[in-house]
Amino acid sequence: MPQPIDFQTEVAKTTAAERIQAIADRASLAAQQREAMEAEERRIHSETEVVQTPEAQSEHVDPELRRRTPYVQRRRKRNSASSEEQDPAPHRPAGDGEGERLDVTV
């Protein structure tokens, strides 16, 4: 024998199913937004973080390079001191037809 249909019960079941589906949709959307925000924060952090290479942290000095250029610092100091003593731009007298300006007219 068929069961009688209670209209109020069926409407309540349908409404509950719709609410559950809406809650699941909102939870899924919130999780997607949270994941996107975390990914954006990770990207910003990785772009703005100062990263040091292992070579910069190492105190190791290459003995072969040191052997080939032991006096580089002394040369730099000596060269910079001798260049300061000399006139940086000596003035040359202008020859025939030579001037300070170059006139190129076509």
How would you describe this protein?
With 106 residues, the chain is mainly α. The chain has a domain at 7-45. It has helices at residues 7-48, 54-57, 63-68, 72-85. The longest helix has 42 residues, at 7-48. The termini are far apart. The mean pLDDT is 77.
Quickly list its features:
4 helices; mainly alpha; 62% helix; single chain; 0% strand; 106 residues
List the helices and strands and how they pair.
Elements: H1 7-48, H2 54-57, H3 63-68, H4 72-85
What is the overall number of helices?
A: 4
Structural class, judged by helices and strands? mainly alpha
The span between the termini is 111 Å
Radius of gyration: 40 Å
Which bin fits the share of residues in helices?
55-70%
Major β-sheet annotation: none
Number of E-type strands: 0
Oligomer: single chain
Write the H/E string, N to C. Answer: HHHH
Strand content: under 5%
Mean of pLDDT: 77
What best-fitting shape do the alpha-carbon axes yield? elongated
Low-confidence stretches are none
In short:
This protein has helices spanning 7-48, 54-57, 63-68, 72-85.
